[in-house]
What we know:
The protein has helices at 148-155, 204-209, 227-244, 246-249, 296-306, 348-356, 362-375, 377-384; strands spanning 22-26, 63-67, 71-74, 80-84, 90-94, 129-132, 138-142, 173-178, 184-189, 216-222, 253-258, 273-275, 283-287, 335-339, 342-346, 391-394, 397-400. The chain is of the alpha/beta class. The protein has 3 domains: 1-132, GTP1/OBG domain (Spo0b-associated Gtp-binding Protein, Chain: A); 138-306, P-loop containing nucleotide triphosphate hydrolases (Rossmann fold), CATH 3.40.50.300; 335-400, 2-Layer Sandwich (GMP Synthetase, Chain A, domain 3). The longest helix has 18 residues, at 227-244. The protein is elongated, with a radius of gyration of 32 Å. The chain starts with 21 loop residues before the first strand and ends with a strand.
Amino acid sequence: RREKYVPRGGPDGGDGGRGGDVVLVSSEQVRDLAGFTRRIHYRAPAGGHGRGAGRHGADGRTLRVVVPPGTEIRTLDEELLADLVEPGSAVVVAEGGEGGRGNRCFVSSTRRAPHFAERGLAGQERWLLLHMKLLADVGLVGAPNAGKSSLLAALTRARPKIAAYPFTTIEPNLGVLALDDGRTLVLADIPGLIEGASEGVGLGHEFLAHIERTRALVYVADASHGEETARSDLRTLHAELAAFQPALARRPRIVAFSKVDLDAGAWARDLEGSQDVGFGAACPVVAVSNASGAGLSMLVDAMQRALPPVGESAPEVLRPVPVLRPGGDRTADFVVVREGRSWRVRGAALERLVAKADLENEEAVAYLQQVMERAGVSTALRRAGAEPGAAVLVGEREFELF
């Protein structure tokens, strides 16, 4: 090459830029995962091409995808990748591809003007499962039509759907309870749980998952069905929580008998206080009427007393621990294995080198062959029993042993 102020000339191809990462970020500006029903594919921009004069290609921009706090990220095999509990927490879920090297990187004492460069590697592609679990201080749980939604509406400004038939609530509802001292409590109305919920009956798994991050639970039972039925509902509810996750059965709890303003539910007023109503341990018991407001202030006081200090009571969140392993960046780090009639060479550095090689360029092929020969690939194949003409697989490329 001839260029002004560059007396010796020589190759000057710059390296390609790295592809952008896809990052999931939790933000309180998003309340649910509904946006992912309309768009499921997210692609970060590619890196720029290297240019002359040794100019490096621009790196691709990071694509930040916003999810609500409480989002679990899993692979299709249900392996937990990350749990974005705190607002602002982020995780890289797909890494951008590595940029290829320009031709100036291949200059040597015998290769003064290489006419080839490396290709860039494709970025990571994967399907992910996103699960959202509500973050609330207190969860309202009970059988269908026990009065949980009415209780949420009576305590907060939430306006959930309320009707006189079971399973009116099919999605959890949140409400904010303002306390006299200026603090707030987030309450979650969990859809009705029935016997077998821990095994998935009645969408039980979906509903129970939202309880995992509550700090305390209010067991709501309909007192108007009679004492025996109400106690049976409480025992069933407690058993399903324990079967789904034993820690839920040990969480601070309060029993709230609802609809005590009705004549059939008046019996529950005699149970107010701290006592055992069938769990084998005493807990606060409150009789409430969502219609008249009776007992609501007592319930709020009981919730404040039941809540342990923040941080001490928060359910344990499993976060993936990064495992650092040797990168295997040396081309000499490889193994040879037999695959049917073919032979496969496995080694991170060699596979990466082959994937980036331009096999349509004779110089690039000669360089690749030289590197593999110096690494001892041919010798290792022959020692393993490979004969001339055998198919050799490296990554997704196939070669013939000479």
